Amino acid sequence: MILRYFNPAGAHPSARIGEASSNPASNLVPVITETAIGKRPTMDVFGDDYPTRDGSCVRDYIHIMDLANAHTKALQYLLENRQQSNCEIYNLGIGQGVTVLEAIQAFERVSGQKLNYRIGPRRPGDVIAIYANNDLAAQRLGWSPQYDIDDIMRSAWAWEGVR
Known about the structure:
Blueprint: E1 2-5, E2 8-9, H1 28-36, E3 43-46, E4 58-59, E5 62-63, H2 64-79, E6 89-92, E7 98-99, H3 100-111, E8 117-120, H4 135-141, H5 149-162
Parallel strand pairs: 1-6, 2-5, 3-8
Antiparallel strand pairs: 4-7
């Protein structure tokens, strides 16, 4: 079984376990929280001229608690010998694309912090949009995400404040 994760992010609700990124972080959510605490003076949004809702790239995310739940459901599925082939692939994410600017707005909304960011040029090779289709995981594993981008940002911010 292959579980394809779309940008795992967020932290345990207790804020005792979270993402300790490489220094400096390169994934969007920790870049946002590092910018908010002043570890970075500003962050760059790479392009605002894509054919999307607001011009920034669209990505999908998955809260780490949803990811843990998906692993549990996948193991149960295998233990019950319900697999339909030798190798099955499941996409795991919120299932709705979130633009980079929407992710920033979600962080600002749940944290009350204004983020210092600037619009920069596109990065070579960035795709316009990529997000999960969770239908197969829902049908076969009985899995669906319980957390949204606000939950991801809220828990990531709580974790950042604890460490």
